[in-house]
Amino acid sequence: MGEQWLKQSLASGVSMLLLLRLKNAPPEDAIQPTLEAWFRVITYKKTWDKELDRARFESAFMYLAQNCDKFPSPKQLLEAMPKREFKELPPPEITPEQQQKFAEGWRKLKEQLRGTYQCINQENS
């Protein structure tokens, strides 16, 4: 199943919160239904990617463990998640022809600006 990693992340994070004995934590017989409810809420109209999101879930659960006095809701987990980090694309390779075209464009722009500067100076004289 493609979302097994998410279920494991939820189980691990919720287990840590349960061990902290936070107020309003579910009783032992309600842990499994709680995990199922969290999974349904977190996956409702959302897709998660193991590569991009696993560390985010771990960070969010750690944040909740450090900052909550009461057992959190799935909404609090989602709010605590850091933004996704995307790999930066390498800069595009510029061909010698493109470099020449860019240089020509810069040269033309500089000429136009020089002409404008000269016109402004003549008007102010």
Automatic annotation (TrEMBL):
<protein>
    <submittedName>
        <fullName>Uncharacterized protein</fullName>
    </submittedName>
</protein>
